[in-house]
Amino acid sequence: MSDELPQVWIDETKLRKRSRRDFLLFGAGTLAAMAGLWWIAPVSSKKRVLGEHTTDFLDTVAARTGLSNDRSERFLNRALTFDDDIAEALYSPNRTVRTYSKRDITPLRNNYEGRTPSPAYLETWTLTLAGLASGSDVILRQPDLARFAQHEQVTRLCCVEGWSAIAGWSGIRFSDLLRAYPPANGAKWAAMESSVNLDGRGNPDPYYVSIDLPTAHHPQALLATHLNGHPLGTDHGAPLRLVVPMKLGLKNIKAITKIGYVAEEPRDFWGERGYSKYDGL
Amino acid sequence: MDSEEPVVDVPVVAEEVPAAEPIAEEPPPAEVVVEEVVDPHAGQRLVVVKHHALVRLSHWLNVPILFGMIVSGLSIYWASPVFLHKPDPVTHSRDYLADLGIAIARHVPGATADPFWFYNHFGLGVFNLAGGLRWHWLFVYLFIANGILYLLGLILGRGYRALLPRRSMLGESLAMVRYYAGVVPMKIARRPWPHPTITTKYNALQRGAYASMPIAGALAIASGWAMHKPVQLWWLERMFGSYDGARIVHFIVMIYFVLFLIPHLILVLVDGWDTMRSMIVGWSTRLGGAE
Fold it and tell me: What ipTM is given for this predicted complex?
């Protein structure tokens, strides 16, 4: 029998000692695992399981031993940045994102964070470019964008929530804009902002994300003006939105009003809300 | 939970001891010294070496790791369910898991029919996509590392031999299914119902179930990465057909893990303390082989 189990004679005392050691390790491991899971659990979940009072008590005890909620947050954020580092290592700037045929196009959900702005802003819309090599800011209007070569691509947008949709985009290449208005020396990031973004109640709530300049130079990084052959509606970021199919949907900022080139990694709307800042697919 | 010194490295004593000999089952207490006849194994015990230390360690580490993966996974799934139906006219739910939550909540005293009930009680909470993702990434790297420990343990302890498929598996599986199906009726009819003779570590059904675990683990990891990095690892996504294909495989594997737990726990309870203990200490006193 190829998988017959080996039988051995072992001193009773030795066997007892080892078994005791294993059981002690097992018990210690169980306790450690439970403590660890509890430590990194969200406060709301802890309160639901243990009740308000017990949770507060245990949190105080943990904080006294240095295991504060703050440190648990930092620990979990390290898991996030570790995953980002792996993603960065997998990324190749030369890899083209898969493109589809127009037959594959699927309906695209309007996933505006907050409320869809009313079209009133379109009349006065401008795009400000800051952090340029020329030293002064440039303000672009819609006709200025029409001067650039137009490109078309059918790519997939993947949302962090788990859904994805295939859409046909056309507009100008980010790399063409970078060539026309080169960033200042030492700039590593493109910080993008939409000042027309609204919160759930309809109040102004600027949206801001950033991508690294190598990603902005990718030939499939598009500043789109059209969706499926029609000018963008306000629901999909009229008059200009970012399309970066190598990043999660939340990086594809709608209704861009400002692009600033900076040396340090800028703040990120979703990064400040517990998500990754890298979001590479 | 074990460390540097696995039980397996005890040198195998060449002496052949017939397994049927009662002395092997219960060796005489050390004080009873049979005069004149010197027992070479006085004060010793014959045990079967069952699980390598790394296999035991990774087995138990799987408990908190899979727990973390599944609860955080449910919070991620909540944000965009993939198993959907037409909206229910009453609850407006399109999500089977939300339906399950509503159905359970109806039978829980004091709870109202809440579509979030399932996610709230079995996940990291609703509206906690960011928290769910952080947990998921933390535990997936632990899961991968643990899988490597398990494979190492299988190789070092030669446990893989008990998992490889065999020619006789199909017939033995049928015998086991027949046996399990008959256990309760025969007990009621008070008729003898002998367990099929098994001479290996696991019976064919166990062999199949345990061997499927590392495969399911690999599938879970592969389908997870297919949807985590569908652009850089485009070939992985292609393997699963599509983005949603990878999601569906991912959830089916998760359900398989959960379903596996039920017979796994029942069989350990039925099998007794020796089986449970052997996963902690590594050895068993059942010299006949499998149960």
Answer: 0.85
